[in-house]
């Protein structure tokens, strides 16, 4: 039961909501085990969610089944800042791909999503969108060298990008040379499927472009934030990007 000490009620409610929406068959006992709490606590949390309007049905007893009402639809979608940015970036990349299959309505989906944001959230999202660039697809000779970057590196880089925090990286060049850098991740560029960071490099005291999949380690420096530079400052760093 040690896990129950690390999960707040808010965290538990979010997890129960996600489990209920998954469509998988669940019992109160399953949920209690997943959360590391007693069945009584799980039942109380489910009752709170019902009071908040989530149409959860639960049978009585320890082994009672838990499910959403069959006629429950998508309704309102609640996303946090990071999730909203991820989704909008994915939509933008899909739109730019030019594929007509299953993608005809992406523009409308994106507009509806943006329209659902609060003014404060919309302002933050627009700021981030202005820092994401979608370019042409990567040339074939780069694809043979490409390996998807590690999930933990992507997550840390993403957060530093959102927070405008400097990061310390270990970077490997195309020639296999390794170096330590401290960079400011100002913009991201997708040359599908390869992502690049358009950054200020403290070592070179100049702008540089780094391939995300060539970053082998990364540590944030949250106390070292930066002021965003104009995108025009990075034009020279994009020269020869097809050979990086």
From TrEMBL:
It comes from the Bacteria. Residues 13-63 form the Helix-turn-helix type domain. It holds the Pfam family WYL. Gene3D superfamilies: Winged helix-like DNA-binding domain superfamily/Winged helix DNA-binding domain. PROSITE patterns: WYL. One of its GO terms (biological process) is regulation of DNA-templated transcription. Residues 152-218 form the WYL domain. This is HTH domain protein. It comes from Pseudovibrio axinellae.
């Amino acid at each position: 039961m040690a896990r129950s000490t690390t999960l707040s009620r808010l965290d538990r409610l979010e997890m129960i909501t996600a489990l209920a929406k998954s469509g998988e068959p669940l019992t109160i006992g399953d949920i209690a085990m997943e959360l590391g709490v007693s069945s009584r606590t799980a039942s109380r949390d489910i009752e709170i969610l019902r009071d908040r309007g989530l149409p959860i049905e639960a049978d009585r007893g320890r082994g009672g089944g838990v499910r959403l009402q069959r006629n429950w639809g998508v309704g309102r979608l609640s996303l946090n800042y990071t999730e909203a940015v991820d989704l909008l970036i994915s939509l933008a990349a899909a739109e730019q791909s030019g594929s007509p299959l299953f993608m005809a309505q992406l523009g409308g989906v994106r507009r509806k999503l943006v329209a659902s944001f609060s003014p404060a959230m919309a302002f933050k999202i627009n700021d981030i969108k202005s820092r994401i660039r979608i370019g042409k697809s990567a040339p074939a000779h780069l694809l043979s060298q490409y390996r998807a970057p590690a999930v933990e590196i992507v997550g840390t880089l993403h957060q530093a990008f959102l927070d405008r925090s400097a990061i310390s990286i270990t970077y490997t060049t195309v020639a296999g040379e390794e170096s330590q850098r401290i960079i400011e991740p100002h913009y991201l560029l997708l040359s599908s499927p390869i992502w690049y960071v358009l950054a200020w490099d403290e070592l070179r005291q100049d702008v540089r472009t780094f391939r995300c999949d060539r970053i082998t380690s990364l540590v944030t420096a949250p106390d070292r934030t930066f002021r965003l530079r104009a995108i025009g400052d990075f034009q020279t760093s994009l020269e020869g990007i097809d050979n990086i």
